[in-house]
Amino acid sequence: MDLCVMIEGQEDVGWEQWRAIATACEEHGIPALFRSDHYLPLGAVTDRQVLDAWGTICALGAITSTVRLGTLVSPATFRHPSVLAKLAVTADHVSGGRVDVGLGAGWNDPEHAAFGFPFADLGTRVSVFAEQLEVVRGLTDGEPFEFEGEHYRVGPVDALPRPVQARLPIIVGGNAAPRSTAVAARFADEYNTPFPEPEDIAPRRDAVLRAWSEAGRDDARFSVMTGLLVGRDENELLDRAGRLAEKQASGSSAREELDALPASWIAGTVEAVSERLRELSDLGVDRVMCQLLLHDDLDQIALIGGELTSAVR
Description:
By secondary structure, the chain is an alpha/beta fold. The chain has one domain (about 1-310): Luciferase-like domain (TIM Barrel, Alpha-Beta Barrel), CATH 3.20.20.30. It is built from eleven helices and twelve strands. The strands form two sheets. Strands 1-2-3-5-8-9-10-12 form an eight-stranded parallel beta barrel, surrounded by eight helices. A two-stranded antiparallel sheet has the order 6-7. Strand 4, helix 3 and strand 5 (about 100-105) form a beta-alpha-beta unit. Helix 1 (about 15-25) packs parallel to helix 11 (about 300-310), helix 2 (about 55-65) runs parallel beside helix 3 (about 80-95) and helix 10 crosses helix 11. The longest helix is centred in the middle third of the chain and has 19 residues, at about 120-140. It starts with a strand and ends with a helix.
């Protein structure tokens, strides 16, 4: 099982911090670095800077050499699929073939209103997402493409250049609902489920495997994205919990912050976190995207790449 780093880029992550995070990932053997795709902060603090997700990925692709880069996930509501496909292919060329494209339907109404993005009802957003997924796949698969649906009309066009990778990896993010897994099985390469409760993981993986099988595929890849907080010992863990409480402006003590973390999070000492990760591996999870809210804590990245990675291989 692979362990990757996932950063909430909308929470005041500046360019120099992105450079440091990517460098730390490469130094410590982290295979992939993912970032969220939002236009506004999502927490209690609302005056944080937000750099564009795909602009960041293109820039990081030019200054790194080994770490894969991707979104988790880009809302279908933010960009026309032709724009997203062109951005992804450009990033793939800049990075020499190290890009993954995470796609979702979009969910956060306030940022859509703030920046003028249409925000339809859930059924319409899912329909738009399904068409976007098909268009992005069609424009990046290396063949002339034409599409006409309810929301988009594209082509005929032979989109050049082709991606560096033979097939641009697409990740669909969701809770393994039937429509989501069905469209993912047609066009995606991986299904990622965010913040699952422990008891939800096996049923969601089963739903993904079933959808892939019904689509005639046997190459399903199932991943989990969840918060991670780890320390070498209890004191280091509490220190990080205290800094997390400060960043979240929760007003909690370190112990209160730690105790209040959702059950979906993976938190504890290296030994406890390693055991939890092994349990996920035993459940068939192919990789875990570790959401690190302390984005300036490069030592936590070192822990993931060193002690945690070795514990699950």
